[in-house]
Amino acid sequence: MMLGLLLARAGIAVTLLEKHADFLRDFRGDTVHPSTLEVLRDTGLLESFLALPHREEQQLMVQFADGMLAFADFRGLRPFPFLVFVPQWDFLELLAGAARRYPHYTLLMRAEAETLIQEDGRVVGVRADTADGPLEVRADLVVGTDGRHSTLRAAAGLQPRQFGAPMDVLWFRISRRRSDPDQTFGIAGRGQMMALINRNDYWQAGFIIPKGSGDARRRRPIMDFQAEIARVAPFLSGRTGEIRSWQDVSLLSVGVDRLERWHLPGLLLIGDAAHVMSPVGGVGINLAVQDAVAAANIVGPVLCDGKIPDERLLACVQRRRMLPTRIVQGIQRLMQRNILERVLSQEGPPPPAPAAMRFLFSFRFVRRIPARVFGLGFRRERVRLPAAPVVNQSVQ
Ligand SMILES: Cc1cc2nc3c(=O)[nH]c(=O)nc-3n(C[C@H](O)[C@H](O)[C@H](O)COP(=O)(O)OP(=O)(O)OC[C@H]3O[C@@H](n4cnc5c(N)ncnc54)[C@H](O)[C@@H]3O)c2cc1C
């Protein structure tokens, strides 16, 4: 969505295919970090973005048996000393609305890319299944932004290196009461953890469980899960009955992987299609946006000149984004191994915060480190492709 907007804004004809009929899906996280806020400011969309229903959090907290612990503090970051939680469908609608202003931008919903069209060793388009039947889109550049189960990366024969993850997530909603905590926060448990995103009248909950244990759980009666929620978050115990059956709970598989090569002649892969991110740090959306900005900055000028970007240029996008991706995935894997794996293999009642952890995170400069690492990331991208309402090229 971000790449489509940036290219259309520069005058390049863009056709974007989205397999779903709308953006009303809950599964992809809500965290918009300061790095993305900077991009929104560059594109003149910050004000409209901050007018969406959202929450700004200056600190991220985890609740232990002996009280809350702040582990990330955004207050020192400039110019955005906070993290924004916004339902992703609102964010995507905002980007789509901004892009639709350009007559050379086409967003096709219920259009599922199925395979690549290749001619003379080059990708020249995609074949898609749409509500109106089969569709062929020809393009000077095809960009695969189709996420963790990317059809285009499989069609290109590109195999990612798998790094694995120790957890999966059960995702559901539960009502929120005035007497509940106000902030979005995590709850530490033994054998499971929970993240609660405050969406005003309800909590969007992520219940973190050991990898592969979801199916066995879902074979048990829903009452067992209701009791488990009440054990981890006692303040929710009077309303776990709102989760009436397993149909109210989605099982989200977590993984981490990365392609060694993000391109072929005529094809570029970015975002999760090139590197699947773990939810740790709530950073995957933001990394995908950074990839989009880098891609627009690098291939945009060539497309504006009416030329076809060669593979050398596509390799420049990968070279620019590979290091930040490696670093963030490395940190995610470290946290998965040293914190999540240990916590998820334990049993018993919710634990108190380890004394060393409580001591360490009592220092503000320590709490600033995760805020800086995940909030700003590494090699921050700024929009350099200028806005120009001229139609030049076609891109999918
Ligand atoms: C449980 C969980 C929680 C997470 N929480 C967060 C979080 O809070 N914050 C955060 O920043 N990251 C989070 N992440 C990571 C984040 O979801 C991804 O890194 C991010 O969504 C990647 O963005 P993307 O645009 O590359 O792919 P996606 O967001 O997956 O978007 C891909 C799009 O392509 C569409 N599509 C797929 N196949 C096709 C096709 N064949 N044809 C047409 N369209 C297609 C999909 O419908 C989708 O709209 C989480 C991940 C998991 C698993």
Largest sheet: 7 strands, mixed
C-alpha termini separation: 11 Å
From the alpha carbons, calculate the radius of gyration and give it in angstroms: 22 Å
- How many domains, as an integer? 2
State the strand order across the main sheet.
5-4-14-15-16-13-17
How many β-strand stretches? 21
Q: Please identify the top-level CATH class of the largest domain.
A: Alpha Beta
Count of alpha/pi helices:
11
What is the helix content?
Answer: 25-40%
Beta-strand portion reads: 25-35%
Model description:
- The protein has 396 residues and is α+β, with helices and mostly antiparallel strands.
- 33% of the residues lie in helices and 26% in strands.
- It contains eleven helices and 21 strands.
- The strands form six sheets. A seven-stranded mixed beta sheet has the order 5-4-14-15-16-13-17. Strands 7-1-21 form a three-stranded parallel beta sheet, with helices on one face.
- The chain starts with a helix and ends with a strand.
- The mean pLDDT is 94.
- Flavin-adenine dinucleotide binds next to strand 1, strand 8 and helix 8.
Entry keywords:
396 residues, FAD/NAD(P)-binding domain, 3-stranded parallel beta sheet, 33% helix, binds flavin-adenine dinucleotide
